Amino acid sequence: MGVGGEEPRVVAKLRERFPDALQEVRAVRDDLTIVLSPAAIREACCFLRDDPELRYEFLSDLTRVDRLRLPEATPRFEVVYHLTSLRNSSRLRLKVRVPDGEAVDSVTAVWEGANWLEREVYDLMGIPFRDHPDLRRLVLPDDFEGHALRKDFPVTTEPRWWEEKGER
Amino acid sequence: MTETRTMVLNMGPQHPSTHGVLRLVLELDGEVVVRCVPHIGYLHTGMEKIMEAKRYQQAITVTDRMDYLAPMSNNLAFVLSVERLLGVEATDRAQVIRVMMAELTRIKSHLVWLATHALDIGAMSVFLYCFRERERILDLYEMVSGQRMMSSYIRVGGLMADLPEGFERAVRDFLDEFPKRVDEYEDLLTQNKLWLQRTVGVGVLKREEAIALGVSGPALRATGVPWDIRKVWPYSGYDRFHFEISLGNNGDVYDRYRCRIFEMRQSAAIVRQCLDRMPKGPVNIADPKIVPPPKPLVRQSMEALIHHFLLYSQGFTVPPGEAYVPIESPKGEIGFYVVSDGSNTPYRVRVRPPSLLNLQALPRMVGGRMVADVVAVIGSIDIVLGEIDR
Amino acid sequence: MTEFLLLSLVKILVVFGLVLLTVAYLTWVERKLVGDFQVRWGPSRVGPFGLLQPIAHGIKLFFKEDLVPAGADRLLFRLAPVLSMVPALITFAVIPFGDTVRLFGRTVDLVITDVNIGLLYVLAVTSMGVYGIVLAGWASNSKYPLLGGLRSAAQMVSYEMALGLSVVGVVMLSQSLSLVDIVNAQAGTWFGVIPRWNVFAQPLGFGLFLVSANAELNRAPFDLPEAETELVAGFHTEYSSMKFAMFFMAEYANMITASAVATTLFLGGWRGPLLPPVVWFLLKVGAFLFLLIWLRATLPRFRYDQLMAFGWKVLLPLGLANVVVTAAVLLGR
Questions:
Q1: Nearest CA to CA, how far is C71 from chain B (Å)?
Q2: Chain C partners (3+ C-beta pairs within 8 A)
Q3: pLDDT tens, residue by residue, C248-269
Q4: CATH number for the domain that contains residue B332
Q5: What is the reported pTM?
Q6: Which CATH architecture has domain A3-130?
Q7: How many domains does one find in chain C?
Q8: Can you give chain B as a three-state secondary structure string?
């Protein structure tokens, strides 16, 4: 974690490699967060994984936040990557912000494990990933309508899908 | 010449050894698996969404139901994230109790794993032996929280209650007996020729593959990666305890078995250390905005009454921000990514589900092997569908 | 002639009834024993010590709906349980339970019929049981039973060889295929202490017989055709009601058969000091059954390919070696 006084090494390296991609860098409560521009995400991930000094080779988690009801609501979605460097025992949170309907580059080619995580995000948030090898719904049925984790998904009524199926 | 065709076998969601409602579509050539496609979601209950509608204290009850074999680990992971957001830290006593309960949980979860794993491979007796010991831990659970499974014992700011009288005695009794029991399981399995035949070299996962797939926990350590979050980023004061982490070489079913057996013994040692150095003091932080005041005070003090009322009607608010505190659950790295918008309910909760990522490695491990190996491998990665589907 | 027929009929009825009763109570014994091994109670509610449990189960199974899956081969589906049940029962025809006794003023052999090729008959009849299992797997028109049926076909054929070879040594020693002669050949003792049982003369043969009989019985650790954690219930997945019960009765009847054959071939049959012959016979059969149940409670299951490799690469060569050594010793005498 080690966020010292000066700019952490990873930020410096990223800034050097992708001068235009860094949108925001924050270190709150020891958690280092870097917001990248969507176009650069796959290359940045590749770089972070392969750089001999950084070695963020373990993708802990990949998820997405619907910012619809947050004060800062545009662009609407935020893809969050939690990276771990097993060698340096350090963690890094990467973010990419995209508006509704826009696809993000898949990082499945970088970390195989991203496959199901991206499918889950696609399933529950409804945002596609570009170049994903097998983009199907993960937990909900294939013919389910709507994306449950979106903030505007109705929570007080039953999904229409069930009613239709129930009548059959 | 006749044409050979493969057969598609639908294994699950109702099958004795898919550990719940996992469904595998296996393409078989004779008994050899050509392709394996897991289908999940049969237990999806939208837990992440539910938690968005619950106040922080209420959301803890949802975490119990995720990995229902290790409820306290889930409680702890969620509570640590919320506490990070609140900027508070539990008292010394609460931390030691948390570690103790987390380790008892690890033993309990591993016992169910060993039981079902052995049953899958046909060693039926081990199943019942393990459940006998698990029962004792469930009794301990009941002592501290009144619940055997859905304990919700670890709360934001501390614990539900202090340890009851007689608890230490009960845990020590258990610890005195437990290592002998583990010896018993090992007598039946570790050197058993049949067990070795069924597990050694089966379901091999290489180190690089495991890392790329995001596999964590004992399954990762079995491939030879010394990665245990309790050691790397000690939480709840794990750095004050002495224990070793398990490590394997080959990443096969047998190594995973050895790793978990070793972990059970280590966990028992940690629990003993907890009992030996249990500090005195309160188990909750003294912040009436987060932790309800003690009941006698509520009857006397107007202020305490108001705090009590507010906590149970509105809950507490959490400053805006986000936190992700990973911990080492029995299954692997679990962490709750909690986003707060400053209200009394989490804005977004995301669970990093270790079972899901471990399960994702299954097709890699069973390709080209036999149906019987699929069963052995599923058992060895120790999945809980409640947490995979959420 | 009439007397002979009547006597045979009485013997058949008695043996048949006893075997069926034993089958029912063998399930009780097994559950009680396995319960003890696994620190639990076993049947304890129905009747004293759960003794009425097998009867309750029988009644329950009688009243279960008898399902035949769509697309099943109906004739074979019905035939299969019968095919596995009948051979299990008719093996008892040649097994001697005891010496001759005098009843109502006539001499009665405690064996239904003493065929001079008794052992061959036993091997031939028991190997017919495999058809029941294979056909059950095939006729169900379902995938898990099919896999179970395939497994059992391969397994039974492989272990049949080892089973056959394991008893050749015994036949060579006793110079006969009649089971009564084999028992008689085991009379007497060595040095006045060790009984002349074949288990001492043929220890390897006995070991081979134990393993391959266990495999022929589809019992753990060789229960691959029904391996419930892999194939749900294997060949009888689709069976219900009495058809299902018949498979189970066949399995338990086969256990008794195997124990009785083992007793006859290797443990001196009904021979033993002090106690009446029939008691000795039952004791030995009981001990062998206990061993089978004990194995089930202890060992994990084989994997299909390992099972095959074990059968062909270990048991078969050992069986052949046993025959060669026995022959050499006999020639050298």
A1: 17
A2: B
A3: 888 888 888 888 888 888 887 7
A4: 1.10.645.10
A5: 0.85
A6: 2-Layer Sandwich (3.30)
A7: 1
A8: CCCCCCEEEEECCCCCCCCCCCEEEEEEECCEEEEEEEECCCCCCCHHHHHHCCCHHHHHHHHHCCCCCCHHHHHHHHHHHHHHHHCCCCCHHHHHHHHHHHHHHHHHHHHHHHHHHHHHHCCHHHHHHHHHHHHHHHHHHHHHHCCCCCCCCEECCEECCCCCCCHHHHHHHHHHHHHHHHHHHHHHHCCCHHHHHHHCCCCCCCHHHHHHCCCCCHHHHCCCCCCCHHHHCCCCCHHHCCCCCCCCCCCCHHHHHHHHHHHHHHHHHHHHHHHHCCCCCCCCCCCCCCCCCCHHHHHHCHHHHHHHHHHHHCCCCCCCEEEEEEEECCCCEEEEEEEECCCCCCCEEEEECHHHHHHHCHHHHHCCCEHHHHHHHHHHHCCCHHHHHC
